[in-house]
Amino acid sequence: MIVTTTSTIEGKPVQEYLGVINAQSIIGANMFKDIFAGLRDVFGGRSKTYERVLEEAKEDAMRELVEKAQSMGANGIVGVDLDFETVGAGGSMLMVIATGTAVRL
């Protein structure tokens, strides 16, 4: 499965557009992650804890996006866009939305 943020794939013309697909992943940030991230806010530096959570959510959303495309008979996804949001009371959950167009190359 070829997955790209571009609208075309060099050397592989799109034979058929199968439709827009999307996938979401929502991951809760627990109390311990919040405490350690809060310490990073005070002392500065990157929050590796939240970076790992965001990466996990992104990978989950991308995996689901590929599964949806495959179930439609696609062998590629073009125009992929990733959006990152916080949701829940006080932004306690992290959400990643992956959107793209399933295609047959």
Would you mind describing this structure in some detail?
The protein is α+β, with helices and mostly antiparallel strands and 105 residues long. It has a single domain, classed as Translation Initiation Factor IF3 (2-Layer Sandwich). Helices cover 35% and strands 37% of the residues. The protein is built from 2 helices and 4 strands, in the order ββααββ. The chain has helices at residues 31-43, 48-71; strands at 2-3, 16-28, 76-87, 93-104. A 4-stranded mixed sheet has the order 1-3-4-2, covered by helices on one side. The longest helix has 24 residues, at 48-71. The model has no long low-confidence stretch (mean pLDDT 84).
Provide a short characterization of the protein structure.
The chain is of the alpha+beta class. It has 2 helices and 4 strands; from the N terminus they run E-E-H-H-E-E. Strands 1-3-4-2 form a 4-stranded mixed beta sheet, covered by helices on one side.
Task: Write the topology of this structure.
Elements: E1 2-3, E2 16-28, H1 31-43, H2 48-71, E3 76-87, E4 93-104
